[in-house]
User: Fold this.
Amino acid sequence: MVRISNTVFNIINVFPFFLGLVAVVASIHFRLHGDTVCQNSLRNPLLIIGLALFVVSLLAFIGSCCKNANFFLTVYSISMVLIVLALTGLTLFAMVVTNKGMARRISGLGFSEYHVEDYSRWLQDNFVENKNWDRIRGCLSDSHACKALHSEATFSGFIRQKLSSIQSGCCKPPIYCKFVYKNATTWLMPEWGPAVEDSDCKTWSNDQQKLCYSCKSCKGGVLANIRKEWRVVAILNILILIVVLIAFNIGCSIIRKNRKLDDKNVSL
Assistant:
């Protein structure tokens, strides 16, 4: 029975082992390839979760394969408790800070528009304020997100396109400014000025290095993308929690059985 439990235990721990390995590799990839400030929201959580799962899975393999390995299994169990608490806390936190924030759909448009004030104060303070935004704006300016936009011959053709949140918020002026469309990244202000008094309408520039990178709509688009990423992380955390709890339960069962065997051997 102990051998069967050990086998099941090892099979279950293969999943967090490879999940941890994938998370670490993904985090390293984000760090090494390009100026990753645009992907900064996922980089550190991926690395921390990945390393924790990787190390704990190694402890599980050692504890289930070696004799007199109660020490490793005990450390494994304590680590699992800490991981469960951490993942639960991170998941709840991610759900809370991303609970606020929805894209604004406009009838007749193939894309949504974004407003920074629609998102939680925590996301604003940690990603799109002051020096944080200066780094992200520089990254966006050097990227090819806006160059990938397809220039339609007419305004009606352009607004039927499917744009990402960053393309919609950073690569064009807000539609409510009612600028004159020339191409995807060139818009002219009417002689009588923008249709509404809004800072984004005045911030827009046809300079391809500036565009709307300093607009509130661009900050909103970036936060929409971060919100989506954090929601995905929250869902993955829930799946990882299920696997971790199953492995933890089997690990505790093995520890109890090993202790019973040790007690029997001592009594003999």
In short: The radius of gyration is 26 Å. The CA atoms of residues 157 and 251 lie 60 Å apart.
